[in-house]
Amino acid sequence: MKIALFCSVGGWGGLEQNAIKTADWLTQAGMDITLIVHEGTRVANAGIEKGIKTIFFSHKGKHRVWHEGKNLAKILLDGEFEALIIGHSLHFYISVWAKYYTKNKLKLVYWQHMQMPVRRRDFYHASFYNKIDKWIVPLDYLRAELKRTTTLQPAQIVQIPQVIDTTLFLAAHARKQEARKLFGFAENDFLVGNIGRIDSQKGQEYLVKAGILLAKKKLPLKIFIMGENNEHEDYLGYLKGLVKAEKLEDDILFRPFTTQTPEAFAAMDIFVMCSLSEPIGMVTLEAMATQVPVIGTDTGGTPELLAVGKAGLLTPPKDAERLAEAIEKLYHNEALRKTLVANALKEVTEKYDVPVQVRLFQKLFQNL
């Protein structure tokens, strides 16, 4: 089966990076995958660098895109593609129109990456959802959400998790001291870390505030926050201001974005995922695979990733006091840390590793 993955956007966030990784993994597994991307974007360049077959296509708008849908249909028919994976929500409606212009020959697969909490059970949305052959959800809670908010039928929905290459992070676990030297940390520091975009929705201020509370209790640990600042807000400046006001610049540290994320996780003693709500949370999986105990917010997909508290501690979002309590609990309890790490490693290797995703995509294409 010839399959096209449509992700013609300019961004380079987790969604786009996952699209490239999955296209690469499926190609390596022998599947015939072609990316449909916008020329010159980071998605396009990454696909070309990986050696994935690529077609350039761009369009404007989201809803009234029947003309662009006709153009996309021609590309798909000329290329003899049998299935189209919609890799971004912006491409949902144009893809449905493309299916219409192929006289329904095209199999259409929507790949969900985000939550869909708003009800879309009206006639307009239902008419488009009915054209979807399969709708991929990565987690149980998103499947349940779809049943509440859309007219999709159970037979249309298939569950395939977002995954990581666990081998990269398993290997990094053994390089803890080298990782600490790489990022300028002392060998004996007890490090509590967060990795991700520095953004108000990621909730790093609650980790900072938890660190301030713990500093007042004289708990000997350091907190570091690593990532790029959201270009639309000076959230990093706000966080640094909180730290400076308490004169804790030596205890709560900031590091720039790094491509050496396995080493960054390996340097930690505890990883904190403090987002207000994270649909999936790839960094949580990466920390689990690096055998770092995890504290996550009890919202979005995080409880499911952490096996409802068996593979990591859960705290309410926006609650610095409860987060500080969880950090202190893990700091004092090495046995609990080891138990959480063992449970998390089992979860991530059995449910969220590359071979799992590849096998389920193969099954999906066989049954289209």
Order of helices and strands: EHEHEHEHEHEHEHHEHEHEHEHEHEHHH
Integer average pLDDT: 95
How many helices in DSSP terms?
16
Question: At the fourth CATH level, what is the homologous superfamily of the largest domain?
Answer: Glycogen Phosphorylase B
Provide the spatial order of strands within the biggest beta sheet: 3-2-1-4-5-6-7
Return Rg in Å: 22 Å
Low-confidence stretches: none
Instruction: Specify the CATH class of the largest domain.
Output: Alpha Beta
Kindly name the structural category: alpha/beta
Whole-number total of structural domains: 2
Shape summary: elongated
Any idea of the CATH topology of the largest domain? Rossmann fold
Measured as a percent range, the helix fraction is 40-55%
Number of DSSP-assigned strands: 13
Report the β-strand fraction as a percent range: 15-25%
Biggest β-sheet strands, sense, barrel: 7 strands, parallel
Based on the structure given, which CATH architecture of the largest domain is correct? 3-Layer(aba) Sandwich
Write the layout of secondary structure elements.
Layout: E1 2-6, H1 14-28, E2 32-37, H2 42-50, E3 53-56, H3 66-78, E4 83-86, H4 92-101, E5 107-111, H5 123-129, E6 134-137, H6 140-149, E7 157-159, H7 166-172, H8 176-182, E8 191-195, H9 204-216, E9 222-226, H10 235-245, E10 252-255, H11 261-266, E11 270-273, H12 282-289, E12 294-297, H13 302-305, E13 313-315, H14 320-332, H15 334-351, H16 354-366
Parallel strand pairs: 1-2, 1-4, 2-3, 4-5, 5-6, 6-7, 8-9, 8-11, 9-10, 11-12, 12-13
Description of the structure:
With 368 residues, this protein is α/β, with parallel strands linked by helices. It has 2 domains: 2-163 and 353-366, 3-Layer(aba) Sandwich (Rossmann fold); 166-351, Rossmann fold, CATH 3.40.50. Helix content is 45%, strand content 15%. It has 16 helices and 13 strands. The strands form 2 sheets. Strands 3-2-1-4-5-6-7 form a 7-stranded parallel β-sheet, with helices on both faces. Helix 13 links the parallel strand 12 (294-297) and strand 13. Helix 9 packs across helix 14. The longest helix has 18 residues, at 334-351. The radius of gyration is 22 Å and the shape is elongated. The termini are close together.
